[in-house]
């Protein structure tokens, strides 16, 4: 189990070597809190697909149960395949000036874009 890619993801998530993760110890005993669990699941989803629910790490709270569940439920018992490559997001539309209320006195404009851009 120590060579399993999922074991490496969990070990990275808590900052230890895979050999230092007891496969039968509860994740909470390993120091995995909600933030660490979220980061681990984000890495799992990035690698194997976002069809794997975030709560999987909570519902299967040891490395052995977690890896076993993922293999049985999402990977049909096979070795863990990588997720298909993700497509890069489409570029945003070029900025354009759109009048909000034309002809009402002081011009007011809206510049569409992504939040924070």
UniProtKB/TrEMBL annotation:
Residues 1-74 form the Carrier domain. Keywords: Phosphopantetheine, Phosphoprotein. One of its GO terms (molecular function) is phosphopantetheine binding. InterPro entries: ACP-like_sf, PKS_PP-bd, PP-bd_ACP. This is Carrier domain-containing protein.
């Amino acid at each position: 189990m120590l060579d399993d890619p999922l074991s490496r993801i969990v070990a990275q998530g808590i900052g230890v070597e895979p050999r230092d993760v007891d496969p039968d110890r509860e994740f909470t005993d390993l120091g995995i809190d909600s933030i660490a669990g979220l980061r681990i699941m984000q890495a799992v989803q990035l690698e194997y697909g976002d069809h794997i629910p975030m709560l999987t790490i909570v519902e299967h709270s040891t490395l052995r149960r977690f890896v076993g569940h993922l293999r049985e439920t999402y990977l049909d018992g096979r070795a863990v395949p990588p997720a298909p490559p993700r497509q890069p997001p489409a570029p945003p539309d070029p900025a354009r000036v759109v009048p909000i209320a034309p002809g009402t006195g002081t011009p007011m404009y809206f510049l569409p874009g992504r939040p924070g851009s």
